[in-house]
Amino acid sequence: QINVLQAKKKFEILDAMLSFMHAQYTFFQQGYSLLHELDPYMKKLATELDQLVIDSAVEKREMEHKHALIQQRPQPLFYLQDFSYDDSKVEFNVDAPNGVVMEGYLFKRASNAFKTWNRRWFSIQNSQLVYQKKLKDVLTVVVEDLRLCTVKPCEDIERRFCFEVVSPTKSCMLQADSEKLRQAWIQAVQASIASAYRESPDSYYIE
Question: Cys staple from 189: which of 24, 137, 151, 184, with CB 3.0 to 4.6 Å?
């Protein structure tokens, strides 16, 4: 009986192996059929990809060439009076009831080694220059007292419409969205400085 059982097991194992081979054959055959149907599309996609690589290389080369030309070319004088980018009405009020002389978006150059530019919501209030990353964030004070500061436009920089607020301890480089806005911010800072001096005795800062 044991010999009979062992003889049967040999055939059962062989039958299981053969069934497994057929299953594998069917699986890969179906996979081949599906991928074979996709073959024309994959060839077309490969051709388009080659063209995209070529177009990207050409565009990169053209942009590098334009960038080199811009760096070599002097800044046109008409940029200083270019107000076409912003036709909105720009106002500031040193006597505003809420204390906010002027507010709006500006780009701020970071003081880290990378000198990155970040867009922040700036405002002039209570003789201070402050900004927020988001509307409900806590105010970050850039300049604690505008009476100790000066403001000036900056032309010798890689970006347009920049101006700098300089205090005794640090300086802050800012960029407006247009020449019109830059002039408005500079005038707002200057007006705030003058207003702050009028509101406090001059002798306070003699020392």
Answer: 151
Note whether residue 81 is domain-resident.
Answer: no
In a domain, 27, yes or no: yes
CA 188 to chain centre: 27
For 65, the domain range is 1-72
pLDDT tens-digit readout, 7-56: 777 778 888 899 999 999 999 999 999 999 999 999 999 889 988 988 88
Q: Helix, strand, or coil here: 121?
A: strand
Predicted pLDDT at 84: 40
For tokens 């565009």, name the residue: 59
Single pTM value for the model: 0.53
Residue 127 sits in a domain of what CATH number? 2.30.29.30
Dihedral (Cα; 63, 64, 68, 71), 10-degree rounding: 60
For the chain, the domain total comes to: 2
Distance CA 25, CA 22 (A): 5
Same domain, 58 and 129: no
52, 9: one domain: yes
- Per-residue pLDDT tens digits for 160-194: 999 999 998 889 999 999 999 999 999 999 998 88
